[in-house]
Design brief:
Layout: E1 8-17, E2 22-23, E3 26-27, E4 33-41, E5 45-49, H1 56-63, E6 74-76, E7 79-80, E8 89-92, H2 108-114, H3 121-130, H4 144-156, E9 162-166, H5 174-191, E10 194-198, E11 211-214, E12 225-226, H6 230-234, H7 237-243, H8 246-302, H9 308-316
Helix pairs in contact: 3-4, 8-9
This protein binds adenosine-5'-triphosphate.
GO molecular function: ATP binding; ATP hydrolysis activity
Pfam family, one: ABC_tran
Keywords: ATP-binding, Nucleotide-binding
Length: about 325
Amino acid sequence: MAISPEEPAIDVRKLCFSYQGNNSEGVSGEQTLEDIDLDLPQGARCLLIGANGSGKSTLLRILAGKKLTKTKTARIMGQDVFMNPPGGVVYLGTEWANNPVIRSDIGVAHFLDSVGGYRHKERRDALLDLLDVDLEWRMHQISDGERRRVQLCMGLMGNWDVLLLDEVTVDLDALVRAELLAFLVKESKERGATIVYATHIYDHIETFPTHICHLRLGRTPDEMVTYTPSSTIMEDSVAAEEKRGELLGIALKWLREDREVRRQRDKERGRERGAKSGADVSKTTEAYIRKGFRAILTLSLVHGKQTRDAKTFYEKYDYNAGKN
Ligand SMILES: Nc1ncnc2c1ncn2[C@@H]1O[C@H](COP(=O)(O)OP(=O)(O)OP(=O)(O)O)[C@@H](O)[C@H]1O
């Protein structure tokens, strides 16, 4: 897709999303994503870092056009992802493994051809080699990791501009994962392809990102961090070694902060709920008491006498027995 090199590949501004629904003005219900900003130049490789439930998958699915939000604030390669979905966007997520079709008795060669493999034979063959995929495999007879490698081959063999990866490297062995990351770095450098990668695995990934983005409880609290360009450290093994663990350190720091913020938020919500239910309970109790005492009052008045309790209640709640 041809756009000027200065234009951002991904341009998300104040994006909001709620699973409870979106109305014509925007979102309604509790927001899963709130005021998300993500601005990535072409050729960027961005790691999305956030705790479980922080909204990484939701954001990636929205960018892939799989979830609708009417806030109209997400553009990829200059095009609105909802109104005018851009081509050249590949989304690879874990839910693919649940699709019964990919566990059926079908050969890998046939499967890849059925999704256009014959059109990209050269890239397909390079990926088969890189991901160590055998065209003779049958999809129902391979392991989860092998099936994942077929998925990656399928997703990456076309000429994509933007790749949205939702933790699909988790079941790859270390060698395939390392080679895949090296391939993606090459794609971004040589073709200007842009990658957003949500992961919880920070091992040996220091040389991958050019940017890191923090999602905290559905928000982007910090400025996006522009990471030290990996080219400078990849050529210098000492620098690369020094860098080892740095990303994990940043991720752990953010995750600890997020946990504190979430605990504080949960505590406040608990207090609010407690106060609300406390208020509800006391109102309900009071209503019952009033009813109960009204009955006693009525009875006692019927019998021509007021009990002491009824009288106390009477006074406390300023009842006028004659009128009640
Ligand atoms: N289909 C759904 N309906 C309602 N709420 C959902 C749905 N899918 C996700 N959520 C909620 O949205 C929030 C964000 O979920 P999401 O899967 O985007 O987080 P994540 O950062 O990808 O988490 P993880 O790291 O565990 O994969 C969570 O609180 C989750 O419970």
